Amino acid sequence: MGKGLIEFINVYKQFGETIALDNVSFKVEENEFLTLLGPSGCGKTTTLRIIGGFEDIQKGSVLFGSQDLSKILPHKRQINTVFQKYALFPHLNVYENIAFGLRVRKQPEKAITEKVGNMLKLINLEGYEKRNVNSLSGGQQQRVAIARALVNEPKVLLLDEPLGALDLKLRKGMQIELKNIQKKLGITFIYVTHDQEEALTMSDKIIVMKDGIIQQIGTPEDIYNEPVNSFVADFIGESNIIDGLMIRDKLVSFAGQDFECVDINFGENTPVDVVIRPEDLVIVPDHEGHLKGRVVSVTFKGVHFEIFVESHGYTWMIHSTKAPAVGDLVGLTVDPFDIQIMHKAE
Amino acid sequence: MYKRFLSYPHIVWMGIFIIAPMLLVLFYSLTIMENEHLYFTIEHFVRFVDPIYLGVLLRSIWLALIATFICLMLGYPLAYILANSAFAKKHSLLFLIVVPMWMNFLLRTYAWMTILENTGILNSILESLGFSRIQFMYNQGAVVFGMVYNFIPFMILPIHSVLVKIDPSLIEAAKDLGAGSKRIFGKVILPLSLPGIISGITMVFMPAVTTFVISRLLGGGQFTLIGNLIEKQFVYVGDWNFGSSMSIILMILILISMRFMPKDEAARGGGLL
């Protein structure tokens, strides 16, 4: 990847009694699509607002290139934000909204006309110049907000849950559009969301946060396939998470049985969390499975069935394209590679 | 049908107490009683076209404009501070602005008289400090002061109610786009608070231009305003026809000046009007 553009070093931030960010460190590379992901109150928006210059920090430092971010004047930061509820200026039309940043920088009228025109083309809203922003649909307002930020040619675009107010279909379309814009312009996007699917779809890198602490940094594949703890596993996609005991390297015990696995270095007889994705559990005839259980419910989900099987007092969630009948006795197998072992959360 | 039925009491109310009196005023302004016969005439309006009366009208408008301007200059910053201050403080401040309005208007103005009189509280203090007495009352300044004091809440409240509704993320957005605090104010806050300013101006100017109590009490009757003139026709002279014609002229002037106010879609929702 490119060179580091923004770097958080041991950043600490408190609001009153609440710790918003606790010793947060990470790097943002040039031209990457980075997503800050986590439940509300995890510190993702605070992180974004610090980069945007709307919050200061109590400890640590934030670097932009090689400079201290807080020492760069706001109008020289080359960072722009797309706000959660768009925050378009209601007294200005589409053209003037997009031109706002250029006018602040006292650009000549000719350059403004050209740049705003290019932006309108990029967001497919040519001919909307004179329209009142309040008369636009949510998706169109969203696009104007993006154009208003991008027209300033920032190095970094910050997006705070920008698709949260749109309906599902529009959101899917905008996800692709955003990703295309990011690739086309080759600038860094830092994206905040609580929607794990959105994060997996668009990001080059995801930072999963909880209670002001970074849980995991990695590519979408890494985070989905190798979550570092049960929180990440649970937050990213659906998971079966149960208590287990790591007997020794490559052998784990859960649900009353021993299973081969691929994990090492957990020590001997260590309590752990065992995570198995619903699509990694395979239903087999009951005498062939590692686990035996009874089917308690089957729900059609479109692409697959969601099946719940009760076994040894634990209910397993299974995703499968074939559906057994409710009440059937079935066996379950799981590949050693698909058993994720995690340290117990403190 | 159901909704229309509910509006009947209000329509009846408006008919009896608003429309009928206005029609009566219009009727008086256009008629004259001679030898127990009623004649229609525009004589009362013609009579008003006289340097003395026109001078009074001009003075009324001029003093009301000055008072409105001062209210705006004092009221806007206060409304702005109120809109941006912490909750506990904000409520007590707003309370202080509204509380005088609970007191009788006349009482408040008399209270100011006892303060500003030649033998009043302020002059007593000045004298005890070794200064000579100052004539505070019975001049145009005192009249304007009385207008500002009495009507400034009508400037502050609509501006305040518009300012608190401005989404803080708009200010952040302007900051994000590189605007400094001056430009944020000029390009975002001021234009967005325009509906409040407009309704504040209207709500101060209208009572100020028609007042007769303030000018009589604080101006000592030396500065006759159009309100005093109208009052005099009704109460002392008994010329209801001429008084009515002056009321109609004032109403028309106010209507015309309202036409020149910028029309804003949002103005109707914002402010108190």
Please describe the topology of this protein:
The complex is a heterodimer of chains A (346) and B (273).
Chain A: E1 4-15, E2 18-29, E3 33-37, H1 44-52, E4 59-64, E5 67-68, E6 79-82, H2 94-104, H3 109-122, H4 138-150, E7 156-160, H5 168-185, E8 188-193, H6 196-202, E9 205-210, E10 213-218, H7 220-225, H8 230-235, E11 240-248, E12 251-254, E13 257-260, E14 270-276, E15 281-285, E16 291-300, E17 305-311, E18 314-320, E19 329-334, E20 340-343
Parallel strand pairs in A: 3-8, 3-9, 6-7, 7-8
Antiparallel strand pairs in A: 1-2, 1-4, 4-5, 9-10, 11-12, 11-14, 12-13, 14-20, 15-19, 16-17, 16-19, 17-18
Helix pairs in contact in A: 2-3, 2-4, 3-4
Chain B: H1 2-29, E1 31-34, E2 37-40, H2 43-48, H3 51-84, H4 87-98, H5 105-116, H6 121-128, H7 140-163, H8 168-176, H9 181-210, H10 213-217, H11 226-237, H12 240-260, H13 265-269
Antiparallel strand pairs in B: 1-2
> Can you name the CATH architecture of the largest domain in chain A?
3-Layer(aba) Sandwich
Widest β-sheet, arrangement of strands of chain A: 6-7-8-3-9-10
CATH class (first level) name of the largest domain in chain A: Alpha Beta
At the fourth level of CATH, the homologous superfamily of the largest domain in chain A is P-loop containing nucleotide triphosphate hydrolases
Task: Describe what you observe in this structure.
In chain A, 24% of the residues lie in helices and 37% in strands. Chain A is elongated, with a radius of gyration of 24 Å. By secondary structure, chain A is α+β, with helices and mostly antiparallel strands. Chain A is built from 8 helices and 20 strands. Chain A has 2 domains: 4-230, Rossmann fold; 238-343, OB fold (Dihydrolipoamide Acetyltransferase, E2P) (Beta Barrel), CATH 2.40.50.140. A 6-stranded mixed sheet of chain A has the order 6-7-8-3-9-10, sandwiched between helices. A 5-stranded antiparallel sheet of chain A has the order 13-12-11-14-20. In chain A, strands 15-19-16-17-18 form a 5-stranded antiparallel sheet, with no helix packed on it. In chain A, helix 2 (94-104) packs parallel to helix 4 and helix 3 packs across helix 4 (138-150). Chain A has helices at 44-52, 94-104, 109-122, 138-150, 168-185, 196-202, 220-225, 230-235; strands spanning 4-15, 18-29, 33-37, 59-64, 67-68, 79-82, 156-160, 188-193, 205-210, 213-218, 240-248, 251-254, 257-260, 270-276, 281-285, 291-300, 305-311, 314-320, 329-334, 340-343. In chain B, a hairpin with a 2-residue loop joins strand 1 and strand 2 (37-40). In chain B, strands 1-2 form a two-stranded antiparallel sheet. Chain B is mainly α and 273 residues long. Chain B contains 13 helices and 2 strands. The relative contact order of chain B is 0.13. At the A-B interface, helix 2 of A face helix 8 and helix 9 of B.
